[in-house]
């Protein structure tokens, strides 16, 4: 990353470039995206781009990291103050679905990272899983969940969130998407309440959490992997 001017104006310009990159990569894909398109979308001169990033790959990797920080922050903020692990899961998943509705590019960009920058993809998922492992381990110590391998369950929970979000947030409702297994994207929507509740019942049973939960200090605050005091900007 280049040494960009550390001024408020410079920070705003850099943020504008990342917002523009999110839109351009989502619309065009990595191959057809270009620095020219990104700078035009950001409303800045092409030369300005190089004050902040050295290449298209660098801004793509920074965008993956930026989206990761923001989604983890959204989930962590939502889960803060939860009285039990299952309440933390409920709040975190809601925040994830809301973030996905506001930033549908997250799915396409992260999936493209598999081919464009595998290391960025691994970092994205690893950061989320690390926090999940810590939260689940803490819940086990407090007797809130059953006896399982936190790492395995962390990946399972992340998979549930991704698939439910893709089907009901990205694809929309059945009328818009066609058949339930129709892979045609139809814009953003929300997860229906009955779908969300069935998902949470499944998760609660899978975690071995008691129906009423356990009151006390929330152990799921770090579910998304954002530690207290971490810079999420």
Automatic annotation (TrEMBL):
Q: Name one GO molecular function term.
A: transcription cis-regulatory region binding
In this chain, the stretch annotated as Disordered covers: 209-233
Enumerate the PROSITE patterns for this protein: HTH_TETR_1 (PS01081), HTH_TETR_2 (PS50977)
Do the record's keywords include Transcription?
yes
Keyword Transcription regulation assigned: yes
Keyword field: DNA-binding, Transcription, Transcription regulation
Q: Gene3D superfamilies under this entry?
A: Homeodomain-like, Tetracycline Repressor, domain 2
Provide the protein name.
Answer: TetR/AcrR family transcriptional regulator
